[in-house]
Amino acid sequence: NAVPPGIDPDRLARLLDRERLTWIEAHPKAAALRERARRSQLHGTPQHWINQFPPPVPLTVERAAGARLYDTDGHEYVDFGLAGTAALWGHDHPAIVAAIRDQVGKGSVTLWSHEDHVWVTEELHRRFGPPFWGFTVSASDANRFALLLAKMATGRQKILMFNRAYHGSLEQTAAVLTPDGVVPQPGVELNGVDVRETTKIVEFNDLDALEKALAPGDVAAVLAEPVMTNGGAVIRPEPGFHAALRDVTRRTGTLLIIDETQTIPAGPGGCTREFGLNPDLITMGKCIAGGVPAGVYGMSAEVAAAASAYTKSGDGGLGSTMASGPLAVRAMRAVLGEVMTEETYAHMDRLADRYERDVSAVIARHDLPWHVGRLGGRVSFAFTPDPPRDAGELYPRVGGSMRDALWLYMANRGIVLNAMSGAALMSPLTAEADVERHGALFADAINELTGGKG
Ligand code: PMP
Questions:
Q1: What is the CATH code of the structural domain delimited by 97-339?
Q2: Which part of the chain is CATH 3.90.1150.10?
Q3: Measured from the CA of 140, which atom of ligand 1 is nearest?
Q4: For residue 153, what are the CA distances in angstroms to 158, 172, 399?
Q5: 9-80+341-450: CATH number
Q6: For 280, what's the count of Cα atoms within 13 Å in the CB-facing half-sphere?
Q7: What is the pTM of this model?
Q8: For residue range 199-212, what is the model confidence (pLDDT) as tens digits?
């Protein structure tokens, strides 16, 4: 948890103490609710992550609207966290709300077909490329199903992922690369699956290691984000990386799964369209149904042929009675048809440009060796002077207390950032004034933390 370069450790400690105290004093109702929750929830939080987030008392949201959150203690926040892209379109986008309102009362789950399903799978094909599509309840499930299909299609059991990637709550990907090889993620026990046997890991952008790992021909699929977004920074593929990745996977009979879950802010066809990628399988979820739990996976004609044979009879392990319900699919149709438009992306990009400029200007003014990363409507920064090449170099994690301090500083003044990474997302409902406000507060916070040398 080292202090990032350029920051005065004493000032950081003082600011953090003060902001924690301020937060606690301002949230008595949330604190009482947490104590009540402790009797029926692990850590007194509905998801264990919340317990690891910066605020000493969880942010307890009464209501969310626009790109704003309203808490139980009466505070209002601009929400740049947007549920880690799950709420990318804002909390009450009119087109999504209208579609959901209209569908409620006409059936939420039926386990039967509807014209909306066909419209959605045709549209996913048009935008992202793969011809055949299936429905799941989450992005985690989309990745789980994609891996299952890849194993079934290739007859191989191992998978390969990039170090420190996150692909959802999957047993096979709860692993990291260390000098001693692949080990279970810190804090995760063997999880019932021995990741040392099932999972190969190389660093992002390391084509030599990738080539070596795939050479034995025992890997069913490479599961990859097209641009790494997890782990606190945007990590871009180097020129030629995707072409080489596609080439080596083809040569070794390995399938390529592109996980677009967090890269939808890159453009209306994700990075797959932006970069002209041609994966065998593609997965996504989160914002795809505008807040109704849903995921989808797309597959090539070859994978579809294998999957088709596999699912002719029996349970297959690919279904859920809760997947592809008309409520979720209607919401998907609204998202794809009315929200993921060029205008939406132009707005998100314009605001992200402004946010990035504000942060970069402060960093430059104070001569801080930090790097601002950007992917469409997403902005984040890493405490490294150059753009990170892989996520391994960001560990052991520098600046955890700095991220906590900034999160609390902002939240005590009405701005919520991503609680894990500090990243910001722009939604179509985010206003320019919100971004302006962030820029001013960021300047004040860094001034205080550096001693105002800038
Ligand atoms: N893939 C990626 C790249 C993700 O970042 C996440 C979640 N952060 C997931 C998959 C899983 O999404 P969910 O938790 O909604 O299942």
A1: 3.40.640.10
A2: 9-80+341-450
A3: 16
A4: 13, 18, 43
A5: 3.90.1150.10
A6: 29
A7: 0.97
A8: 999 999 999 999 99
Give the residue ranges of the chain where pLDDT is below 70: 1, 188-191, 453-454
DSSP codes, 149-218: HHHHHH---EEEEETT---SS-STT-EEEETTEEEEPTT---TTS-HHHHEEEE-TT-HHHHHHHHTTS-
The two structure tokens encoding residue 298: 């797309």
- Cα distances (angstroms) measured from residue 103 to each of 107, 137, 320: 7, 18, 20
Q: Write the DSSP assignment of 232-252 as a string of letters.
A: SS-BPPPTTHHHHHHHHHHHT
Q: In a mutational test of the pocket of ligand 1, which residue from 52, 262, 320 has the highest number of ligand atoms less than 8 Å from its CB?
A: 262
What ipTM is given for this predicted complex? Answer: 0.99
Give CA–CA dist 79/69, Å, rounded: 6
Lining residues, ligand 1, CB within 6 Å: 84, 138-140, 143, 166-168, 225, 230, 259, 261-262, 285-286
Edge-first strand order for the sheet with 76-79 is 61-65, 68-71, 76-79, 415-416
